[in-house]
Amino acid sequence: MNRCACAALVAGLLLAVTAQAQPLEFDGIELSRDIPCGGRDVNISGNANTISLTGDCGVVQVYGTDHKVSLGTATALEISGMDISVSATSVARLMVDTAKNRVRGAVVGDGQTAIVEIDGAEHELDLRFDGPVQITLNGVDNQLNWSGDEPAISSSGVGHRIVRQ
Q1: Where are the domains of the chain?
Q2: Alpha-carbon distance 106 to 38, whole Å?
Q3: 84-140 residue pLDDT tens
Q4: What integer is the mean pLDDT of 10-29?
Q5: How sure is the predictor about 27, in pLDDT bands with cuts at 50, 70 and 90?
Q6: Which of 33, 36, 88, 91 is the most interior residue, by most CB within 10 Å?
């Protein structure tokens, strides 16, 4: 193969890898989408979007207000905003902050300790734990309903309700 052909092949492969690595971006108001993740990271921002993510996702970040998100699996789910509702089949890491967010799903460590970090006020979490989980709960008036394997919990703040179901 000559140098030009070899260089073109390498450039094409680099472009393909770069295109695959780009996160899916959803920014807007009242968007409604049904999207396969294909292993990619996903960023959702704005207000009142309804997003359904299917398949395996990388890191899913949800910012803003009043979103409704459903997803299959994710390596991590990060929620920051207000009145965001997320339902997930399973995540390996969960971070929730700000106020009044609702999360339902399984936290699965796949042989490692899964991490859950909750900060802020008046969040409602219904979680099932599969394997070792470390939870840090800070803030005011958060509700954690959990089932499955018993997690290690560290908490500070006022008015938290932690209930095994």
Answers
A1: 25-164
A2: 20
A3: 999 999 999 999 999 999 999 999 988 899 999 999 999 999 999 999 999 999 999
A4: 68
A5: very high
A6: 91
The answer on pLDDT for 15 being more than 50 is no
Look at residue 159 and give its three-state secondary structure: coil
- Here the tokens at position 135 are 């939870």
Task: Write the CA distances from 100 to 80, 81, 104, 117, 163, integer angstroms.
Answer: 10, 8, 13, 15, 18
pTM, entire model: 0.87
Locate 98 and state its tokens: 């700000």
The torsion region of residue 140 among left (phi > 0), alpha (psi -120 to 50) and beta comes to beta
Per-residue confidence (pLDDT) for residue 88, from 0 to 100: 98
| Average pLDDT rounded to a whole number, residues 44-55 | 98
Which residue's structure tokens are 């959803």? Answer: 26
Nearest CA-CA partner of 89 in 113, 56, 111: 56
User: 75-85 as b/e, with b when 16 or more CB fall inside 10 Å?
Assistant: ebbbbbbebbb
CA angle 150, 97, 123 (to 5 degrees): 65
- Beta bridge partners of residue 25, listed in sequence order: 43
Distance (Å) of CA 147 to CA 109, 141, 164: 15, 20, 6
Q: Which two tokens stand for residue 90?
A: 């399973």
